[in-house]
Amino acid sequence: MFENALRAGETRFETKLVGIEDQAGFAAAARALAEGEVVGMPTETVYGLGCDARNPEAVAKVYEAKGRPSDNPLIVHVASKESIPELVSEITPVARVLMDAFMPGPITVIMKKSDVIPACVSAGLDTVGIRFPIHPVAQALIAASGVPVAAPSANLSGSPSPTKAEHVMKDMNGRIPYVVEGGECQVGLESTVVDATGNWPQILRPGAITMEQMEQALAAAGISKPETVVALENKAGEAPRAPGMKYRHYAPSCEVHILGQGDFDQYEEYYKEAVEREIIDSRTPVGLFVSDTIAAEIQVLFEDQKDKILFYTYGQTDDVEAASQHLFDGLRVLDGQGAGIIFAPAFPKEGLGVAYMNRLEKAAAEKVSKAEAPKNERKVLFVCSGNTCRSPLAEAIMRHLWKATEPHVMLGQPGVQASLEVSSAGVATSDGCFYTRYSEEIAEYEYDEDITGERSTMLTEDILKEQDLVICVTNDHSHFLRERFPDLSDKIFSFEELLEDNYIDGIDGEVLDPYGREYEVYQKTAWQIEQILRAVLPEILKKWEMT
Ligand code: TXA
Ligand code: MG
To answer: Ligand 1 pocket check: which of 125, 139, 190, 238 to mutate, most ligand atoms within 8 Å of Cβ?
Structure first.
């Protein structure tokens, strides 16, 4: 579990970095694209991992290189407006205006897809995002390859999008054959993703092209906001929630904090206070994503503490374009230099500031949750239908295995005891049915766990919310729960999903339903559950930083 198909350190290619002036190298990269390989390419927003959008095998390689599951639609990049009609089945009047006004440029327009786009590119949706980058090297590469190029951002899943070829080389080295050099990205934040399938644009991801700009372009074309905006059919935009633990990949990096609220004349004071505080808390070196002038002042103020502060300067204090262009590079550089915490300035949420704050707030939220001290108490819940046979058995076996492998302590903190609370519930039960007698007997005789007299519990949202991990006996149960409670889906798994990377001979994650059957069937069920839990417990403990 928890690992990419391509493991860290494993290499398949000697990744070549080629520039457009290297004619032979550039032509080879374009050919590789046409022949179904994955190529790192520059655009004005961020670098992408390109492949032939019509070739499902090539698309699969992109996901493998990125270390991400294929559940998120890819943007299709073109080098001319003429190549768009064959990729889509409908160009609405709104889409037409956006294409005319902003292409080529940092915008992705979502339209109904044509049959040319395979389901693996659209992630099963009937739409496709089309982007015509303005970056000359991107245009040259796409044109030379002769194929529509599907490309996500070229970062490893979990790290900031790359804005320099060196970022792509760092994340993708050995995973792909070519990276094309195109200098530092001008915009630095990913494109505006806008759904134009209805009668008014809907922004799914803010970027350099703003809603105000789109409204102006539409007004100029005689289209004003309709009284009823037609409901849009898909609201993807954000990555669909990943169903598996193994889908979560956080780059090892520090907390990010946002300073101020657009009151720029106060920012020097804020940075100063932040640095003072962190030096006292010894979360140093403190990483500052900061303007040139404030950096200079801070350097003077903390002259004798130079080694405790890292600076990444983006330009003038209130220059949102410069801050946007350098944000991802700044986070990568400060992180790479070993910052204990990073401070970055807030910008007013208007114009490009909307996209800048969107990315910065995400970075801040992710790192904060990661920086929380690991909990030493965890709750796991087993779920089946009736909560009378399988989940009570699993509950008893899990408790037994936990005790049998004691002591459990927090990783690296031998003095801190780790504890686990185990319970069970049913999705199709009513409260208060007795557990089946055979389950009680097996729990007692074979696992030394007393569950007699306990009664079934009906699963509720409140119970689910309290849990750290929810383990369902079948995929039907886990699918059902994730659909019902999408916000909680990150912690819901079936036995089979937990086992995905843990092959055990004779066990496939399926567990017999013994309800109404003889004792021997219950025994078999218990044995299956025990094998599965033995296999996954070490991984679960690792994930919770317990031993
Ligand atoms: O600037 C960019 O857009 C960069 C460069 C390389 O072009 N690409 C990029 O791709 O950021 P990616 O895969 O990292 O993000 C694409 C976003 C995802 O949030 C995805 O869900 C959304 O666009 N998206 C793509 N196609 C979509 C569709 N048909 N419907 C809804 N959202 C879609
Ligand atoms: Mg991305």
So the answer is: 190
